[in-house]
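The following block was generated as part of the benchmark described in Methods. Ligand: 2-acetamido-2-deoxy-beta-D-glucopyranose.
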Amino acid sequence: MKFFFSLALVSLVLYAIFNICSKSYVFDPVTLNTICNTVIYRHQNVSTHEQTREMFIDLRNELASVYGDENINHYKDEDWFFNNAGGAMGQMIILHASLHEYLIIFGTAVGTEGHTGVHTSNDYFTILKGEQWAALPYGLEREIYKPGMTHHLERGLAKQYGMPKESFALELAQGFIPGMLPFGFADGFSSTLDVKTLYKTTVITAKDMVKHVILGMKRHFM
Ligand SMILES: *[C@@H]1O[C@H](CO)[C@@H](O)[C@H](O)[C@H]1NC(C)=O
C-alpha cells in the first residue's frame, strides 16, 4: 500500500515537472530543417568517415549558435553508442535530452530495418546523409526520404522503416519522452544484454535530463 502510494506520488511529481517544462519547447522542426539544409549544402562530399564527421561537428556548432551552447552537447566521438530497438540496430549521439524533448544524431554505418515503435511524442527525422524508407501497414509503396527532407512520424503511429548503409539523420522528438524509454531499453534488457551500452545510455540520458529539468525550472521561475 505504502509502495503504491509512493509510486503515485513520484509519478505525480514527475508529471507536474513535465507539465511545467513542456510549456516551452527549445526546438522547432522547421528551424531544424533549415539548419540541416544549410549544413548539408556546405558539405557536398561526405563519402568518407572524416568528411561525415566534419559535417556532424559543423551541425553541432550551428545548432549551438542558434539554440545556445548550454542546450547542445559538445560533439565527442566517445559519446556515440549503439541502440537496439524494434528489431533495428543503429548508432546515436545525444545532443539534447529533457523530459519533453530529445535531439540526437541517429543512423547506421551498416544499414538496418525494423519497427519505429509507437511513441508518446511527435518525431521529426531529418536526413543528413543516405536515405530512410518507411511504410504504414497499408502502404504498398515505400516512402523515401533523402538528405534535407524531414520525415514527421506523428504521435501514436507506427511504421516499418529501413536505412541503407551509411545513412544518418538529425532526430527531434517532442512529447512525453519517458514514455519512449521502455522501447529504447527493451532490447538491451531482453536481447543484447550489452551492459556497457545500457550503462552509457542511462548515464548520458539521465545526466542531460536532470540538467535540462533544472534549466527549464530556472527559465520558468526566475
Ligand atoms: C569526395 O571525396 C573523396 C575523398 O576525399 C574523393 O576520393 C572523391 O573523389 C570526392 N568526390 C567528389 C565527387 O569530389
